[in-house]
Amino acid sequence: MLIERERLRGVYLNVLARLAEHHLLRAEYLRALYHGQRLLSRDPCREDGHRMVMVCHARLGQRAQAMSQYRLCREILRREFDAVPEPATEELFRQLRSGHELAPQREISQTSLVPYLGAPLEQIEGLAAVDRKHRDSGRHNGSSR
């Protein structure tokens, strides 16, 4: 049972990541930010999620928040794993710090902000709908997650 729960947790986290990327590629930065933050609230060690949130803040003109997200990522990685951010995260931070324009969304996407799932977007959106329904039914029943 525990193995299945962990597998489903991994699928759920990847769905959140794919939804964030989906919205980022469509220049829906607030929606992408929402899903990126949900991803990080469930797994703060997901560096791809930190990059996604950094990009969203930058695209929304919130450079200071993007830089703060990098510092948070760096601190979490140091504390949890005694590790430093990946080169892709460091490069994104350098771009933000220098004030240079970020790469176009397609180029950012190809640098693996999100791990590949191999599932069609329709499946992912379907899983997200199930998640929303589950959360909504929990609220209506008076239970919490």
TrEMBL record:
It comes from the Bacteria. Residues 1-97 form the Bacterial transcriptional activator domain. SMART domains: BTAD. InterPro entries: AfsR-DnrI-RedD_regulator, BTAD, TPR-like_helical_dom_sf. This is Bacterial transcriptional activator domain-containing protein.
